[in-house]
Design goal:
The protein has helices spanning 9-18, 41-55, 92-98, 113-123, 138-143, 145-159, 171-180, 220-229, 244-250, 263-271, 287-294, 317-328, 331-345, 350-364, and strands at residues 26-30, 59-65, 72-73, 76-81, 104-108, 127-131, 165-168, 188-189, 208-213, 235-240, 255-259, 275-278, 298-301, 309-311. With 369 residues, the protein is of the alpha/beta class. Strands 3-4-2-1-5-6-7-8 form an eight-stranded mixed sheet, sandwiched between helices. A six-stranded parallel sheet has the order 11-10-9-12-13-14, sandwiched between helices.
């Protein structure tokens, strides 16, 4: 098992001792994708929840899309449906079948939410929604005015469904949900964890780094603009997606473009970066920002979590360039921001996340609906 996949035995022991009810639970997790398929950090979050639940002695099964022959991934038992993630909205019957012996269904936005909700209501079982993505008006710039409005309406519909609990990654995401639909008593902010033991600051740090999917929402045009405007500053871009090839072709000489392959590779690259650049236009959390913080990077970006560095308007190129230049030319300040970020990142532990998540589960299991 790789370093990025280790579970901290000491943290697990603490969690076991502090659980309100150590009785093993049977949990059906439902998400539209699951590793090795991924579209972003959400799939990593779901994988880690599954593995930590199993390490704590709970029974877990994952329902997702993909090749039905793949029945396990990193120890997590799977049922994969050979359909698109959009068609996953129609499989409430299959969710109900898989949830027959489950104490609780935990689904995640987007396309697993509707079938899981319908199955849970049909079976009178508690259902929890983990909101991994919520973009609101950003859909219009991401998908255009027509398709973007369809995604907005779909998102609004999801936020109006009365799940037993809704778990949000950040206060900003919770606030956006409340602007789209009713405020519900069980809503709570539950930030994800990161594998803190895998991230560190190298003795020598140099350069500006960006990591994420190569698309407009992540602000890759801003990354190109800043690299062109700061030709003496080295940039590293570690990305994935269909746009990676064209991005590499248009990148100036001071950008090193690397494919994202593993989180261990990401951790190694972050350890040597002085500044992490994240000009994303819409985020529910920004998992890679927390990982950059744990790696001792100063942050220039826009993400709904507290960090040391400079918070920017991702559409303001001159201000972003000035922010990067100011940190780059002040190594002492840059280092101080990175050290403070390492301290701030300690709050994003899987131990803390699982303790709070299991408290939610236990508040629902066994209560009449």
């Amino acid at each position: 098992m790789g370093a990025g996949e280790r579970l901290l035995a000491s943290e697990i022991a603490v969690n076991v001792m502090t659980m309100l009810d150590p009785r093993p639970l049977r949990i059906l997790l439902v998400h539209e994708r699951f590793p090795p398929d991924f579209g972003g950090g959400g799939e990593y979050v779901v994988l880690q929840i599954a593995k930590h639940l199993m390490a704590l002695g709970h029974q877990v099964k994952m329902l997702t899309t993909g090749n039905p022959a793949d029945q396990v991934y990193e120890g997590v038992p799977l049922k994969r449906l050979p359909i698109s993630r959009y068609r996953f909205n129609t499989v409430s019957g299959i969710v109900a079948q898989e949830a027959q012996d489950a104490d609780l269904i935990h689904c995640f936005s987007y396309h697993a939410a509707i079938p899981a909700y319908r199955a849970a209501r049909r079976m009178n079982k508690p259902v929890v929604l983990g909101v991994l993505a919520l973009f609101g008006d950003a859909w219009l710039s991401m998908r255009g005015p027509w398709i973007g409005r369809l995604f907005q309406r779909f998102e609004t519909y999801l936020m109006r469904l009365p799940f037993d609990r809704r778990l949000f990654l950040s206060p900003g995401s919770l606030g956006l949900a409340h602007s789209l639909g009713p405020v519900r008593a069980g809503d709570m902010v539950l930030p994800p964890g990161i594998s803190l033991e895998d991230y560190h600051a190298a003795p020598v740090k140099n350069g500006v780094m960006f990591s994420g999917k190569i698309d407009s929402r992540k602000g890759v045009d801003m990354v190109l603009a800043l690299a062109r405007g700061l030709p003496d500053v080295p940039f590293v871009v570690m990305g994935w997606g269909e746009g990676l090839v064209s991005f590499r072709q248009s990148a100036p000489p001071n950008i090193t473009v690397l494919p994202f392959l593993t989180r261990a590779g990401l951790a190694e690259a972050l350890s040597t970066a002085s500044i992490f650049l994240f000009p994303s236009k819409a985020e529910t959390f920004g998992l890679v920002v927390a990982e950059a913080m744990a790696s001792g990077c100063a942050v220039v970006g826009q993400a709904p979590l507290d960090f040391e560095g400079t918070r920017i308007d991702p559409s303001d190129v001159p201000a972003c360039m000035a922010a990067v230049h100011a940190l780059w030319t002040d190594p002492a300040r840059c280092q101080a921001c990175g050290e403070k970020n390492q301290v701030l990142a300690q709050q994003y532990s899987w131990s803390r996340h699982m303790k709070d998540l299991l408290a939610v589960y236990q508040s629902l299991v066994g209560n009449p609906r």
